[in-house]
Design goal:
It holds the Pfam family UQ_con. It comes from Aspergillus oryzae (strain ATCC 42149 / RIB 40) (Yellow koji mold). Helix content is 50%, strand content 9%. It is α+β, with helices and mostly antiparallel strands. The chain has two domains: 102 residues; 154 residues, Ubiquitin Conjugating Enzyme, CATH 3.10.110. Strand 1 and strand 2 form a beta hairpin.
Length: 305
Amino acid sequence: MLTEHSVCAKIRHENLRIAVIEPLESSLGILPHESTSAVSERVSEEDDDVGEGQALSEDDKPVVDQFADLRKRRFLWYFDSYIQTIDAADSVISQERKFQRMPFESQGNTMDGHFDYPELRRRVVLLREKIIYETNNWLFEGLGVKKQELSIASNLQRQYEQIVEDLKRQKNFAVDLELVDTNPFLWAFTYFGRPMSHLDGGIFRFKIYISPRFPDEQPRVFVETPIFHIRVSREGVLCYSPRRTDEMRYHIEAIVAALEEESPPYDPRTTVHPEATKLFWGSMEDRKKYNRALRQSVEKSAEGP
């Protein structure tokens, strides 16, 4: 018998497959049924090509699909939600169960197929692996760009130096920045919780990965210090939105704002930690639980690695 539940179940499965997974597989060049090990081997070959000196030039810049880049960032944000959704559905829907035909479907306008959440899970995990490989590969590309003395490397170096000088002039002791191994495409960001704030006493370390194609490809920010926070996913991906995307100082500003904002407006697009979000926007008792969990992670951060 047709039920609202069966309609929603079918739409949920196909939304994940068609709207989330397949476009990213296409933009990342992932082949059908490709394994994580195959992706690793292929990325290693690409790294070797870069290391062997495939020359980049100012006039030979690849065209960046900025919407595909947005998809990748948002995918990292929502990865936990996708996995949670898949696992919940897989526990109640048997594998290989055929889709139920809906009354509004007709010949030539049907959504045929079957449920296969284990396969969706495999593909989602593989997508994350490939995006992380791609992000790490920016560092190798960046070293090549720096060696060739292309403008993006010197531009990022200047931006870094200007931001550091501005922080000193403003006597902003909450943020410490440095380049990792003098690579302008990898910034180490340390945040010190401000007194009398919900992060008071905490010490949180981040890595900011910057593409050689910045700002067409936007930075990806990973939190190395565990924190229970509505803007940080379980995998340590920070969700933030800069006022402008073309200068790194706006990204630093937005990272700090995402951490410090205590009463943000509700925005479902920023739901990157489902459990934290549920507590933060729940009852008064839920909010207390959220604050306790956040405070515990703040205190633990001060203890060091």
